[in-house]
Write a structure and sequence with these properties.
Elements lengths: L7 H8 L9 E6 L7 H7 L1 E5 L7 E5 L2 E11 L4 H10 L4 E10 L9 E10 L11 E3 L2 H13 L5 E9 L7 H9 L4 E3 L2 H10 L3 E13 L2 E4 L6 H23 L2
Parallel strand pairs: 1-4, 1-5, 5-10, 6-8, 8-9
Antiparallel strand pairs: 2-3, 3-4, 5-9, 6-7, 6-10, 10-11
């Protein structure tokens, strides 16, 4: 597939932002856009300023290091591709994906974390950005994030292969059983697209995904505990702390 080539000036005009304003680090929150507000964003970046005509993403700085620009972007499934393309072309170098995932393995519990080291492409959009059927996170980022998790004394995380799907409707019992028996850790909708776009443009990605669903007998079940807002908030805040610590390590500050 041939991509339309756009100059930096064309992208700046389309996105309504100058290249020099785009941060090196971008936190990509894979969630429903209306489920986040400015208070959530301010937990991740200081002095956030909205961009784009939908006031998304927001660009600010690291809460502890005002000289380190960091961005925060809310996306859901296929809506991410076009916007991510622009910001990667304008200078984003590192992507930290956050969001949720359903567990495929019995030993992975709700409120654990999954880091997709590899992701099987079972969606549609990622096929257009990178040819391999399996895409990967960045090794350097994986090492740094794992060191941050250990430093923060968090043990309930799992690193391995996941699968991205285009829709929940294709998660048939047969496929779920096949993925489970193949050792895949979880299923969600965004990682393959994010990793594929990043690999296509030389950007380094990693995902830190909260387990919110479990599955038994090859059926996705919504665990009632997922609605424990106190635990959800605690884990979301913890993921934020891991990312900000990892950025500090990357900056050696």
């Amino acid at each position: 597939m041939a991509f339309k080539k756009m100059s930096i000036k064309e992208i700046e005009k389309w996105a309504g932002i100058k290249q020099k304003e785009v941060p090196k680090y971008l936190i990509v929150d894979c969630t429903w856009p209306w489920s986040r507000d400015i208070k959530d964003i301010e937990k991740h970046i200081k002095n956030p300023k909205p961009h784009w005509k939908w006031r998304n993403p927001w660009f600010g700085v690291h809460p502890n290091h005002p000289d380190v620009p960091v961005g925060y972007m809310i996306i859901f499934s296929s809506s991410m591709a076009s916007q991510l393309y622009f910001y990667l072309k304008l200078g984003v170098k590192y992507i930290f994906q956050i969001g949720s995932i359903g567990s495929l393995q019995d030993n992975i519990k709700i409120f654990d974390l999954i880091i997709p080291k590899e992701c099987l492409k079972f969606d549609w959009i990622s096929q257009h950005f990178h040819s391999p059927k399996i895409v990967r996170c960045d090794k350097q980022l994986l090492n740094i994030v794992e060191n941050s998790l250990k430093e923060l004394k968090f043990k309930n995380y799992h690193v391995g292969r996941t699968v991205s799907v285009a829709s929940n409707w294709i998660q048939t019992p047969e496929r779920m059983n096949k993925w489970k028996n193949a050792g895949l850790m979880g299923v969600e909708q965004e990682t393959a697209t994010i990793y594929s776009i990043c690999m296509a443009f030389g950007v380094k990605p990693i995902g830190l995904l909260r387990v919110v669903d479990t599955q038994k007998k090859a059926e996705r079940l919504q665990d009632p505990n997922r609605y424990d807002e106190k635990k959800n908030k605690k884990l979301r805040d913890f993921v934020r702390d891991v990312i900000l610590l990892s950025i500090q390590k990357l900056e050696n500050v």
